[in-house]
Amino acid sequence: MKNLKLSTLISATALSLTLASCHKDKVVKPVTTPVTDGFYVLNQGGYTYNNSSLSFYSYTTKQTTPDIFASANGGGLGDTGNDIEIYGSKMYIVVNYSSYIDVVDPTTAKLIKQIKMFTGSVAREPTNIVFYKGNAYVSSFDGTVAVIDTASLAITKNITVGRNPEQLAIANGKIYVANSGGLDFPNYDNTVSIIDLATQAVTKTLTVVTNPQDVSADANGNVYVLSYGDYNTIGPSLAVIDDNADIVKSQTNFDASTFTVQGDNNGYFITSAGKIGVYNTKTQTISQTNFVTDGTAITTPFSVAVDSSTGEVFVTDAKDYQSNGQVFVFDKTGKKEYAITAGIIPGKIAFLKK
Q1: Residue 241 near residue 216 (C-beta atoms within 8 A)
Q2: Which of 66, 127, 163, 318 is the least buried, fewest Cβ under 10 Å from its Cβ?
Q3: Looking at residue 173, which CATH number applies to its domain?
Q4: Phi, then psi, of 183 in degrees rounded to 5
């Protein structure tokens, strides 16, 4: 999970996992009517423990449904939920170790179709998903990006990229794919593949620092790639790519375990000290070393998302990677508004709007 740090958390989640929760936010029984507004939390669970889940928080009722997918479908989500996005009238959940994509109705969480990601009997292990003009593009650890028609939900093409690709970002009619090589430890990859969306073919491959995982784009012609290094002699680094010339403009040491651009001007990242930093994409500098201004303690910050309609910042807390985590919601000034209990290792968030 880079996003959910999949390649870096396999060892951390290979512990004996137990469910536990002592938080006091309201939890309700399975929903019986369609939901209209709120947010989903994809809880990736422990790698190989088959305990991913999907939480939903309603803005209207201010209540949490702890596993709305299981409630709606009578069964669990699968093993290692890695990414979730709403596109059009469907929600797509990428389940890595189980090697499929669950396509669900975002208002009911009912399964529409399960797209299995296998080559024969070999799991392709999908990781992340993006969308462009009626197609979904899914990276998989087998070194490909699959093209899925969002009308027929059929795989129409597989594009070969680098080793163990993780996050993808769309900018200037292209997809930028981070090839981590994370499953080949210690022989990591260090490339970014660029796919032309018009031809659906790789047109260029750029070299960055070892083990690139996070990719995101701003509105100013820049693509950001966070490399994790080798966790030993090579530290994390942030590369900035010009999405017109497709060249690496800069590459600097950057203390972060995740990086995502949210909105036009801000990138959010988690530091080794567990702080939420803010990066100004216009000035290409760190504007805040600690976004949280009210002293709220987050045990193990894991991912960051921003609701673009309100400016609220959502930070997931993985706690001990074994018990139920939390999601903290802050206003744009860094003050806590509320927190909810989620599942084991809460990761990506998808916003449902009326």
Answers
A1: no
A2: 163
A3: 2.130.10.10
A4: -85, -5
